[in-house]
Amino acid sequence: MNKINLGVLASGRGSNLQSIMDACESGRIPARVAMVISDNSGAFALERARRAGIKAEFIDPEDYSGKADFERKIVEVLQQNDVELVCLAGYMRLVGKGLLAAFNERIINIHPALLPSFPGLHAQEQAWNYGVKFSGCTVHFVDEGMDTGPIILQAVVPVYASDTAETLAERILEQEHKIYPEAVRLFCEGKLEIKGRKVYIKE
Ligand code: GAR
Question: For 50, how many CA atoms within 13 A lie in the half-sphere containing its CB?
C-alpha cells in the first residue's frame, strides 16, 4: 500500500505527534509524517520531529497580517511537502476557511473530551469541574466550528472522586495516544466515509 503523507500541526509538547510518528515507524499506519508545523517557536513537537529526522517549521503568526495570510503560508508549506492528510495534534487555533478549503475533509483533530461536551480550551478541566463521571477523547474531522466536525472515534475513561484535573488529563491522554493513530490508520486505508454528520467505518 502506498504511504500517505501526513502534515501535523502542533502548538505544544507533541505527545500525540509522537504517537503518530511511532505508529508510522512501526508500520501500523501506512503513512509517513512529511512535515510538522508549529505556531509556537518553543513547541517541543518541533524538537521531536527534528530528532526523528522529520522536517519541522515554526510559522510565526505575528509575521502575517491576519488569519487568512497566516493560513495561506501553512497551506503553501503543506502542499510543497505533498501532504494529503492534516492532523491537528494539540494545535491551539481555530482552523479558518483557507486551510479548510485547501484540505476539504482531509483535516482531523484530537480533542480531550467526549464531544459535543466540553469543546474549546481546557476540556479536561471543564469536565472535572462539571462533575461528570465519565469523560474521554474524540477524533473528528475538522469543519468551520469549534470542535464540531463529524466524529471518527471516541474513547471513554472514568472520572474518580480522587481525581484532579491533572490526573484525569493523564488518563485521557493515554487513550488519545491509542485512538489518534487508529483514526489515522482508518483514514489512510480509505476506510472512512462521511455522510452528513456521521462517519462510517468500513472494516
Ligand atoms: C492533547 O490533550 C490534545 O487533545 C489537546 O491538547 C493536548 C496536546 O498534547 N488538544 C486540544 O485541547 C485541542 N483543542 P500533546 O501536545 O502532548 O499532543
Answer: 10
